[in-house]
TrEMBL record:
Keywords: Signal. Coiled coil: none annotated. Residues 21-54 form the Beta-defensin-like domain. It comes from Zonotrichia albicollis (White-throated sparrow). This is Beta-defensin-like domain-containing protein. InterPro entries: Defensin_beta-like. It comes from the Eukaryota. Transmembrane segments: none annotated. Pfam families: Defensin_beta. Residues 1-20 form the signal peptide. GO terms for biological process: defense response. GO terms for cellular component: extracellular region. The keyword Cell division does not apply. The keyword Cytoplasm does not apply.
Amino acid sequence: MKILFLLFPLIFLLIQGAAGNIITCRRKGGFCTIGRCRYPTRAVGRCSAVEPCCIR
């Protein structure tokens, strides 16, 4: 039960950090995708730990 008190702040920090990066990715004209960027696109940043920001 004590571990839940440690997990909640971590989850909130991850959500908060991901929201700001998605906005900056969209401002650059990019989009977030899971995994890697496919061929015609290239990575220009990170949306989260597993999502790169891809741009055409």
